Amino acid sequence: MSKNKNNKPVWSTRIKKNSSTLFAKVGSSINVDKRLYRQDIKASTAHVEMLFKKKIISIQVKNKIIWGLKKISNEINKKKFIFNNKSEDIHMSIEKRLFELIGEDAGFVHTARSRNDQVLVDFKLWMIESSDDIIKEIDSTIKLIIKIAEKNIYTVMPSFTHLKNAQPTSFAHYILAYVEMLTRDKKRFLDNKQRLLENPLGVAAVVGTSFDIDREYTTKKLKFKNPTGNSIDTVSDRDFVLDFLYSISVCSNHISRFAEEFILWNSDAFDLIKLKDKVVTGSSIMPQKKNPDTLEYLRGKTGHFYGNLFSMLTILKGLPLSYFKDLQDDKELAFKSYDQIKISLQIMREVLNNFLINKKKMIQLAETGYTTATDLAEYIVQKYKYPFRKAYLITSKLVNLAEEKDKKLNQLTVNEMKIIDKKLNEDVLKLFNIENSVKSKKSYGGTSFENIKKMIKKYKKNA
Ligand code: ARG
């Protein structure tokens, strides 16, 4: 181990030649995994405390190691620590520095563990914290959407299916759909915790260790729930990375759908919303342009999240148990997705804080395309006790007639309606009012103004 002093790897007695320079360069993960230093020091501290408790190391050795680890932590925090590419990763780097600080006793820190479980415990600790960070970003976004919805309960707009006008709704109801999506995203990260809370530390390289260690002790110390059950599975398992990347991908999918809708609504063709200057960019040739680049960025980034998820899935496919170098890239993928999803959620909020609603255009569009036809069909069933299909047919004929006469439904005369069904009278005209239409959708989860108010209350209670 003293070979450590001359910058040689711990295996240099066994492997006499230096690694190929090219491989040493690409094989080192220090530039990526150095961000795990806090978790590494925390886990090593818990590990040596356990080794001491189990009388595997002496109190003096334990104290020396903990002192050294604290010093290293300070050095890193103060940016006085040199992350040398020659140490393959953060774990070897910290161990090497420990040798410099406390000498030979540093060699006890790696008793009854391997880098395989060390990497995993650090990574899982990081992911638990990072999932909480993402949840916080999601929560702030949910709160902002609720605030916007509260101000727009009576802002009537069309809903769409196939991007054709469907039925009148409220802008509040529309964007509250994103609260539901984001709430599911949040729950996904919370669910993942069940699996993240299994402590891998102590499985060592692959089959466990002959030392009489106490995995329950480190489990408690590091706030895990229980130790993992099979050492071979533990060092092979990256399901938790897939869960994380998948959850981020689904969240980004929701963000991309939001981005796409806002791009459409902000277009000159739709003109339902207007992005403020803070979130648009100009064109280098067309002076009049204000482009929704921020939203396009969000939509595009989704591809990267999926890419990271698919990279991980592909790395794992057909990989025999247990640890292989292939797995080293798991951290880079998770770190990239984590950084980017936080930024995406922040940008989404930036957009939500910087747009105007064209209420007039929303109403105008909600009144276009016979959006209240379904209201009439439902009325006919309820009032005249016709089967729904018959009511649907009558309404279709009425829409055809209105189209022929180039009229809106509420512009048809009673006589014109009676040609199609004698029972139709002036009472039906009120059905064609878009606000009445929204009001009438009282079924649970529907768009009525009263429902929206109740849902907002509920969301606020949970937020
Ligand atoms: N840097 C490596 C990784 O993150 C450490 C794993 C070491 N294990 C090994 N058997 N080489 O995957």
Q: Could you characterize the architecture of this molecule?
A:
The protein has 3 domains: 2-111, Fumarase C, Chain B, domain 1, CATH 1.10.275; 116-364, Fumarase C, Chain A, domain 2; 373-432, Orthogonal Bundle (Ribonucleotide Reductase Protein R1, domain 1), CATH 1.10.40.30. The chain is built from 18 helices and 6 strands. It has helices spanning 21-27, 30-33, 37-53, 59-77, 90-102, 115-150, 171-196, 215-221, 231-236, 239-266, 293-316, 330-352, 359-366, 373-384, 388-404, 414-420, 434-439, 449-462, and strands spanning 156-161, 164-170, 198-199, 226-227, 273-275, 355-357. Strands 1-2 form a two-stranded antiparallel sheet. Strands 3-4 form a two-stranded parallel ribbon. The longest helix has 36 residues, at 115-150. Arginine binds at residues 29, 33, 88-89, 115-116, 119, 323, 327-328. Arginine binds next to α6.
Topology, element by element:
Blueprint: H1 21-27, H2 30-33, H3 37-53, H4 59-77, H5 90-102, H6 115-150, E1 156-161, E2 164-170, H7 171-196, E3 198-199, H8 215-221, E4 226-227, H9 231-236, H10 239-266, E5 273-275, H11 293-316, H12 330-352, E6 355-357, H13 359-366, H14 373-384, H15 388-404, H16 414-420, H17 434-439, H18 449-462
Parallel strand pairs: 3-4
Antiparallel strand pairs: 1-2, 5-6
Helix pairs in contact: 3-4, 3-6, 3-8, 4-5, 6-7, 6-12, 6-18, 7-10, 10-11, 10-12, 11-12, 14-15
Arginine binds at residues 29, 33, 88-89, 115-116, 119, 323, 327-328.
